[in-house]
Automatic annotation (TrEMBL):
It is an enzyme of class 3 (hydrolase). This is protein-serine/threonine phosphatase. It comes from Colocasia esculenta (Wild taro). One of its GO terms (cellular component) is nucleus. GO terms for molecular function: metal ion binding; protein serine/threonine phosphatase activity.
């Protein structure tokens, strides 16, 4: 859906409007459908990510440099996609709820037509789209500032558009420094940041924090980001090398994420490395006909729902009504039913104007006694082990 704008449409420009499909981004309790199967999932602790999920690996995709980008920018593309003429059509919907928290600190952005949104020149990469989820903490200042300005830093970076990944990485760091320089905002507030920037079939996912991007690929969940928790092995090693410590899962006993923008009370002077990093991890992939939709959500969703469960719910919803906004509402409603303890923000992005097709499973002589979700999990395991 088209996103709202509240800034002068010059290019490039500071983006200081809310871009979600609805200005408040909220959904009413009565507007959500009944919950689907799986509501008896454990309500404490985050669902294991290694259950019912498929990850890209060298056996299922080959690395290939994306045309027109820097040779260091690597994309994931399967051999069967090389001759594909697929071109995505972007449709998005979003839903936000305060949940049990006293204050809503999440922000998000949905831009389905980036060139039109920016009033960009004719040579601007097209079609293009931009989506983001910003999970704030310690107040709303950091999430609001980054939402308004991050895209500006990307498109004004010297590396854009020849090396999009470098531009995104620089933009995260520059936006973080710019926030520290603001005098009217509380620089001790912070936010995790998850973005998806798409040009044609090439999608760039950037993540700093514990929001998560999950691709729905013919019913299977493909995680495109990693949760940056302090106890994650790679994050723990990085943190301890830089002199940080982890206490009971919290970075320096204060923060439950290892990467975030803002939180300048926990960072060293600008330009120096510190345990709390603003640098994003990047994932680039080439979309194909099998890639049906993308779910982007804050940790309030993933605390109570596995990636595969979310994809299963979203696909069923889209097959019923083909409306990404209603789909995002149902994911939020289901998370609330599972007693999430956080704010909730979900963005669903569809890559086709049509609903997901029904998956035909060949009839077997022996009765099948495994659920569709279990079957997708087994497919992912077999894929990763070949």
């Amino acid at each position: 859906m088209a996103a709202g704008m509240d800034f002068s449409p010059t290019f490039p420009t500071v983006l200081d409007g809310r871009y979600a499909g609805k200005e408040d981004g909220s959904c009413s309790e009565g507007g959500c459908a009944d919950a689907l199967d799986g509501s008896n999932q454990a309500k404490t602790g985050k669902p294991p990510r290694n259950l019912s999920v498929m990850r890209h690996c060298m056996s299922t995709a080959r690395l290939m440099a994306s045309a027109g980008l820097d040779v260091g920018s690597i994309g994931l593309i399967s051999p069967s996609d090389a001759k594909s003429h697929f071109l995505p059509v972007f449709r998005s919907g979003s839903c936000s709820e305060i949940g049990p928290k006293a204050q809503m600190e999440d922000e998000h952005v949905c831009i389905d037509n980036l060139g039109e949104h920016l009033a960009a020149p004719a040579d601007f990469p097209s079609p293009g789209a931009f989506y983001g989820v910003f999970d704030g903490h310690g107040g709303t200042d950091a999430a609001s500032f980054i939402r308004k300005n991050l895209l500006k830093f990307i498109i004004q970076d010297n590396h854009f558009p020849t090396s999009v990944d470098k531009a995104i990485r620089s933009a995260f760091l520059n936006a973080d420094r710019a926030f520290a320089d603001t005098r009217s905002l509380d620089s001790s507030s912070g936010t995790t940041v998850l973005t998806a920037l798409v040009f044609g079939r090439t999608m760039h996912i950037a993540n700093a924090g514990d929001c998560r991007a999950v691709l729905g690929k013919r019913g299977r969940a493909v995680e495109l980001s990693k949760d940056h928790k302090p106890n994650c092995t790679s994050e723990r090693i990085r943190i301890e090398k830089l002199g940080g410590r982890i206490y009971d899962g919290y970075l320096n006993g204060q923060l439950s994420v290892a990467r975030a923008l803002g939180d300048w009370h926990m960072k060293d002077p600008k330009g120096s490395s510190c345990p709390l990093s603003a640098e994003p991890e990047l994932q680039e992939m080439i979309l194909s006909e099998e890639d049906e939709f993308l779910i982007m959500g804050c940790d309030g969703l993933w605390d109570v729902m596995s990636s595969q469960c979310a994809v299963t719910i979203a696909r069923k919803e889209l097959m019923l009504h083909n409306d990404p906004e209603r789909c995002s509402r149902e994911l939020v409603r289901e998370a609330l039913k599972r007693n999430t303890s956080d704010n909730l923000t979900v963005v669903v992005v569809c890559f086709s104007p049509d609903p997901p097709p029904r998956i035909e499973i060949p009839k077997l002589r022996v009765r099948r006694s495994i659920s569709a979700e279990g079957l997708n999990f087994l497919k992912g395991v077999l894929d990763s082990n070949t």
